[in-house]
Amino acid sequence: MDAPIGVFDSGVGGLTVVREIMRQLPSENVIYFGDTARVPYGSKSKATVLKFSKQIVRFLMTKNVKAIVFACNTASALALEDMRDEITVPVVGVVRPGARMAVSMTDTKSVGIIGTYGTIKSGIYTEYIRQLDKNVTVVGKACPLFVPLVEEGLLEDRITDDMVERYLSELKQYNVDALVLGCTHYPLLVNPIKRFMGDGVTLVNPAYETAKELKNILAKNDLLNEGKKNPGYEFYVSDGVDKFKSFADRVLPINVGEVQVVDIESY
Q: Helix (H, G, I), strand (E, B), or coil: what is residue 259?
């Protein structure tokens, strides 16, 4: 089935999920929406994140998508379950796949979660992990400055190393051996995080796990695009086309070409 997959995030971080979809589902068409005018979601209330997510889903449904990926940990945590029954196509979030992988990777039964204030405060990762294994200790840490560091392109910079040390030092006290990168921006900081946490800690990238789950769901529902070899990609934002394109061209294996602005408040 050649209908596109709809993917959205509060900004540009969800492009790490698109990158994994391109790798694991190379025949699929993708439509991406980044809510760049209203980023970040992590500091906003559940009601606001729910409102924004509903507007974006309505927009994506006008594009006749066959599945929707909540490529935003905050939206996955605060809005997805409330909206699941009203969405008529398969829905995939980034939280459950990351939680499952973390449980499978920990030997010390101590898992760290880093994310936005909204994701950490929601306790959603802890809830899913404890459902899978009630003996796992979950240590959450909000790292709000990681998002602007990524969006400014400071992936290998002294200030980034300083912030990684400041945020993650306490995780080392808990014998954490699996660390979930619970924000779609964070996989782009994998090098400084890995350097600080050391080889004994497995970094779990929910973007990778989400693409894997999406593939399984599409196959189960007979929705895979089996024939097309030259997929199409469309990119939409609510603001800041030039900055988005610059970032996307660094993250994705393609040149994004045209990026269109959407008046998302009208949906």
A: strand
Distance between CA atoms of 252 and 58, rounded to whole angstroms?
A: 26
Taking a C-beta distance cutoff of 8 angstroms, is the pair 29, 226 a contact?
no
* Tokens coding 72: 């935003």
- Span 5-93+208-266 CATH architecture: 3-Layer(aba) Sandwich (3.40)
The answer to whether 5-93+208-266 and 95-206 have equal CATH topology is yes
Q: What is the mean pLDDT of residues 178-182?
A: 96
Task: Encode pLDDT of 78-106 as tens digits.
Answer: 999 999 999 999 999 999 999 999 999 99
In tens, the pLDDT along 197-241 reads 999 999 999 999 999 999 999 999 999 998 767 899 999 999 999
- Which region holds residue 32: left if phi is over 0, alpha if psi is between -120 and 50, else beta? beta
DSSP H helix total and E strand total for the chain? 12, 10
Q: What's the pTM?
A: 0.90
Non-local CB neighbours of 85 within 8 Å, separated by 6+ positions = none
**Catalytic positions, written as ranges:** 72, 183
Q: How far, in Å, CA of 143 to CA of 121, rounded?
A: 12
How far apart are the C-alpha atoms of 94 and 231, rounded to whole Å? 23
Q: Which fold has domain 95-206?
A: Rossmann fold (3.40.50)
Residue ranges of domains in the chain: 5-93+208-266, 95-206
**Rounded to whole angstroms, how far apart are CA atoms 39 and 244?**
12
Distance CA 46, CA 52 (A): 10
